[in-house]
Amino acid sequence: MATMNRSATVTECVRALARQTRPPDHVIVADNVSTDPTVHDLESLPNLPFPLTVHRMASNRGNAGGVEEAMALAFAKGANAVWILDDDSWPRPPALEALLGPGWSPKVVRHAIQICPESQRLTWPLPVRNGDKSWRLIWTTGELPPGDYIPTRASWTGALVSKEVFAAVGPVNGELFIRGEDEEYPWRIEQAGFSFEAAIKATMDHPGPAKMIHWRFLGRSLFLERSLVDSKLYYKVRNMVWLKRKQAGNLEATLMALAYVGGVTALDGPARLPMLAKAIWHAWRDRLGPL
Predict the structure, then answer these.
(1) What are phi and psi of 203, to 5 degrees?
(2) Residue range 50-101, pLDDT digits in tens
(3) CB 29 within 8 A of CB 43
């Protein structure tokens, strides 16, 4: 996981890992140049059942860059799989044991179920199979299909990525900074021929956005948070439009850009238009990295 200036949050995540019925063999936290006591507090945690490495980043590279470096370090240390977390995703005690349960295959990316503590709904909508093999989005645990392990698509937080997957797919694109690696890396995993499945008994508490808006545009689902701060809005729109160009070409990317312009303007008014224009222009120019 990566963190920055969130000492209480990230130390609680490490404590949650220490409470696992099957603790991880090693925990690596990439610190994005925190100016609060994050590094000190992490390194002072007592009686952990695993080695803890706090990887000091040379500069703030966001969640994408932090996870890129932490994953590379983990596999260099000999890991056969890494478990991707956010610093505010707190696995319940049986989570890792369930992920590594019967039938685990390094060619399938298993992932945890994320629950928002406030609403008790899924933190993010989860795609699951319909009876006709198409996909549908579900929002509650009550909608989950039967079984301990169910096919899904495109997971990031809570995903168990094997060294076989990493060798085929390569590193996370750290230049996405934030709000993009969670879409781009799972897409590359799927493009490389690997699949995803959810471990129903692997649950983690992960707060979700309080004001997430879901709308359909030309048959596609788009998600946006109302009143998102400018920097997060910039990364969200830039990275999604950039990724859509890579996936489907200029026309689809243009339609996505127009959808974001219309949606954000309807939600927050025209004052966001300059930031949206900058994000879309940078997406078209392949200008990634930090804002």
Answers:
(1) -115, 140
(2) 999 999 999 999 999 999 999 999 999 999 999 999 999 999 999 999 999 9
(3) no
